[in-house]
Amino acid sequence: MILEVFSNLNDCKIPLDPFPALLQDRPIPSCSSATAKCQPSPNTQGRPAPLTQPWRSPGEPQAPFSLPAPRWPVECEVIQETIEHIGEGMLQLSPPLLPTHGPGCLRSTPTPTTVPAPPTVFQGSCFTCARVRGAPGPFSSPAAPLEGPQDTTLLFESRFESGNLQKAIKVGPYEYVLMLRPDLYTAKHTQWFYFRVQNTRQEPLYHFTIANMAKPKSLYGQGLQPLLYSQRDAQSRGIGWRRVGTDVRYYRDNTGEPPMFRLSWSVRFPHDGDTCFFAACYPYTYSDLQRYLRALVADPARSRYCAVQALCRSLAGNTVYLLTITSPGGVAGKRVVVASARVHPGESGGSWAMRGFLDFLLSSHEDAKLLRRLFVFKVVPMLNPDGVVVGNSRCSLAGRDPNRAYGKALPGSFPGVWHLRAMVQRLLAEREVVLYCDFHGHSRKNNVFMYGCDAGRDGTATRLHQRVFPLMLSKNAPDKFSFSSCKYQVQKSKEGTGRVSMWRLGVSHSYTLEVAFSGSTLGEGSHFSVQDLESLGRLLCDTLLDFCDPVPAKVGLDLAQGALVPRDHDDTLTLALSHSSSRSDASPVPPRLGPAGIQFFLVSRVEVLVLERSPEPAPVSLFPGQLEQRMAPVPLQERCLELTLEWPFPGYLKQGMATVPPGEGISWTVAQALRHTASHR
């Protein structure tokens, strides 16, 4: 039994040239909200006449903004029901993250069910125009009507915001083969799923198989389970999304060309006659973001230091929002931190981490107040709203990955990333951008980790600088963040990404924050809950404050504890901290024993020396003019390279800290440090 196509696509074909917006810099065509089809005005190229661009100038936001309903491509069917899930404080059940079939779990297994290939309606076509609620109807029936109360056939639906399911085939009384819809205007990128099932039964064991997963590796082979949401449990017991599924398998299907991969699981529904949802990760829709922003703007306290503006509009006309967060009273002398999320729509965990980041920044916590006094935060919480609305995994309505388009993006094709890059370029001309962080999700590696930028030809000190922030974050989140999983190489295939583009512009610390779809294998190990994801935002803020501390005792401590830093050729770096103070009341904390027996003394001013270990054992001798009598001997053949850590701001940062003289920093040469120490003995 084949259940009819119930995804948010109809059978409309649009015979246009492939990806015209990629070929030239032109604005999107208009589309009346009252009609289903655009009425083009032919021009010399036979294409819709261009409109005035909805943005002002590169990187310049516009205000005020409104919160209209999401706009969909006109060929998308959208049901009228509003889909909302768990509210604040509802429980997410996150079981331990344990492999279900041992290591690997990736195997080739023949299947007895022949599944037809997904429709290719959108191959060779492109986005033309959009309207609120998509296609005007009439809609196709989602499934054959039930034959009676005894009919146990499940009813599937995905024609709602962020939904993705294209076809279901009933192959047994309680067994279904499912097909995901590729990203719109492409024939690939099948990973994100989110759909509704009704007419459930509590007693039988159901078996589901998604037959067209695209990636050869997945965390489903390492313990990841699908998410289930029961409306009855949410209403009666306050239980929201939970991880479910037994016999979870991810394996190769060799019956087609190119080969696809299958995800299968078995599950019992919690109630008879329930309405349930399945999802790859906790959904966070464009409407969820709008509700969050609406509450933010309506809050008189938070809106004092947060301005919500429109950075630009997407191809479909959805607003790409820009939040500017800082304390009232001007921005003179403040550096900038830029953050973005959801350039890949199927990585919804990034939105939950971004929400935690915003919640903390906008809170009354003392550290949040301090961050707002020190920095101007420019935040784009959803770079690809169109992809989120239609339920894509990776692409925008241009049919391409926007996180590979920063270097060549055109405003008419990738408006979000184009305007973000232009904004950062404009900011860099005015002030320092101390950090850029792009929030992502990862489907193949556990834990949380970062990708940074290291050109390879950089010196040791520069290379070490790139690793400081991830190292500190690993200390603040030891049960979630894996420093050993971080990578810093800039591959040619990554040149078009946000982090590399911002780094090329001049942002010295530019990172991608990757949040696993699954959870953490550190400590006891468990799936991530929504609260876990939100806590990452708070921990990122805490790390930013530590990272920019003008009295960097904590920076030095983390460098000392993380002295063994992976390099490209498996060698190591050893860090030694020498120190001095112009304040007579400054006293060192108890020394810590680091690698190679070097003791570290941390006081209010810290000089960091990078000692690159020689490959051969060297004779041991005292370092000439040794700063502290208790320091361990340093091999003669180890050469010292200075690592500069600059004080970012004069004045007080935290209560009880010494005042930093304006214009004074902590970058000292070895000779200066020795002379300073000798003069105070």
From TrEMBL:
Residues forming the catalytic site: E514 (proton donor/acceptor)
Region (Disordered) location: 33-69
Pfam family, one: Pepdidase_M14_N
Keyword Cytoplasm among record annotations: yes
Catalytic activity: (L-glutamyl)(n+1)-gamma-L-glutamyl-L-glutamyl-[protein] + H2O = (L-glutamyl)(n)-gamma-L-glutamyl-L-glutamyl-[protein] + L-glutamate
Major localization listed first in the record, in broad terms: cytoplasm
Subcellular location as annotated: Cytoplasm, Cytoskeleton, Cilium basal body; Cytoplasm, Cytoskeleton, Microtubule organizing center, Centrosome, Centriole; Cytoplasm, Cytosol
GO annotation, biological process: proteolysis
Biased composition annotated in UniProt, kind: Polar residues: 33-46
Cofactors (names): Zn(2+)
SUPFAM superfamilies (UniProt xref): Zn-dependent exopeptidases (SSF53187)
UniProt xrefs under InterPro entries: Cytosolic_carboxypeptidase, Pepdidase_M14_N, Peptidase_M14
UniProt-listed Gene3D superfamilies: 2.60.40.3120, Zn peptidases (3.40.630.10)
GO molecular function: metallocarboxypeptidase activity; zinc ion binding
Top-rank lineage group of the source organism: Eukaryota
Statement: the UniProt record of this protein carries the keyword Metal-binding: yes
Keywords noted in UniProt: Carboxypeptidase, Cell projection, Cytoplasm, Cytoskeleton, Hydrolase, Metal-binding, Metalloprotease, Protease, Zinc
GO cellular component terms, semicolon-separated: centriole; cytosol
Positions of the Peptidase M14 domain: 282-548
Family recorded in the similarity comment: Belongs to the peptidase M14 family.
Protein known as: Cytosolic carboxypeptidase 2
